[in-house]
Amino acid sequence: MVAVDRGRYTCLVETGGRKKKRERQLVTAMKARELGRKGIVVGDRVAIVGDVTGQADTLARVVRVEPRTSMLRRSADDTEDTDGIERPIVANADQLVIVTALADPPPRPRMIDRILVAAFDAEIDSLLCLTKSDLAPPAELVALYEPLGVPFVVVQKGGELEELREHLAGRISVLVGHSGVGKSTLVNALVPDANRAVSHVNAVTGRGRHTSSSAVALELPEGGWIIDTPGVRSFGLAHVSVETVLASFPDLVEGTVDCPKGCSHLDEDCALDAWVAAGHADPARLASLRRLLSIREGSPEPE
Questions:
Q1: Is 183 labelled as part of a ligand binding site?
Q2: Considering all CA atoms of the chain, what is the largest pairwise distance in Å, rounded to the nearest integer?
């Protein structure tokens, strides 16, 4: 599934067999009634029936969604007029690329943290892509995420993208970031015929416009796929448990054995302080864990 738009699903279909040349074509489909309320998102692998010629004014039907290897989700936060339900974003990705500008607009570490937690929940790898390095140095932001072991690449408009291409080659990578960080510009450079609309940052608010209105999967010339998503201004995490976040810190898990029942790992009676003080783990790792847990709860970051 390469695109979803208002009840119409664009699928990349491979036709042909052992005696025929294999060809690929885009087919527009609708969801079969028997699928009920089951959601279909970009990245899903599906079975379709009906007219699969891809010709204009034809419509196939999606009759089955194959088991997913991963699902990137977010839930509505308290600033959105919803009932807090989870929102599936992309299926079957194996890498989440967090695109953030070093300036214009300035970095938003709390947003980066939220997206990282969502990646932990989906059990997919993370990559920090720092754009606009011609406007500000990356050192401070890189240092903030070094204890988490998050790999990073630094790029600028018109600059070399070879290192980023190496990270993307042969993988299904979903690009996420808030508006104005240069995500669409990056996509257009990686896939020259993508023609993604590019936004400009408002000088007063420091925010960009949403120029990508829906997620779309694009094949990379060197192999692999990138999935461009609309710019986000919030990333709710109500669906993510404390245990999910903690599991991403195996060096700290053993230290929670002596924690009180239901410990949030943010309070004074948490056993992790003693565990770290005894030299079992790096204090920076505990600080990073607590930063992510506080982000998950929507509470202020601990000092």
A1: yes
A2: 69
> Is 177 assigned to a binding site?
yes
Whole-number Å distance between alpha carbons of 117 and 245: 6
Known binding residue 244? Answer is no
* Closest to 124 measured CA to CA, from 160, 89, 86: 89
- Residue 181 counted as an annotated binding residue: yes
- Is 178 flagged in the annotation as binding? yes
pLDDT digits (tens, 9 = 90+) for 10-42: 999 987 666 666 788 999 999 999 998 888 999
> Does a cis peptide bond (omega within 30 degrees of 0) precede residue 260?
no
Is pTM, for the whole model, over 0.70? yes
Backbone angles phi, psi at 22, to 5 degrees: -75, 130
pLDDT at 233: 66
Q: 109-122 and 283-297 helices cross at what angle (nearest 10)?
A: 90
- Is 132 annotated to bind a ligand? Reply is yes
What is residue 21's three-state secondary structure?
Answer: coil
> Is a pLDDT exceeding 50 seen at residue 133?
yes
The verdict on whether residue 211 carries a ligand-binding annotation is: no
Find how far residue 282's CA is from the centre of its chain.
27
241 marked among binding-site residues: no
Mean pLDDT of the chain: 85
Is 134 annotated in a binding site? The answer is yes
Q: Which residues of 252-273 are buried (b: 16+ CB within 10 A; e: fewer)?
A: beebbeebeeeebbeeeebebe
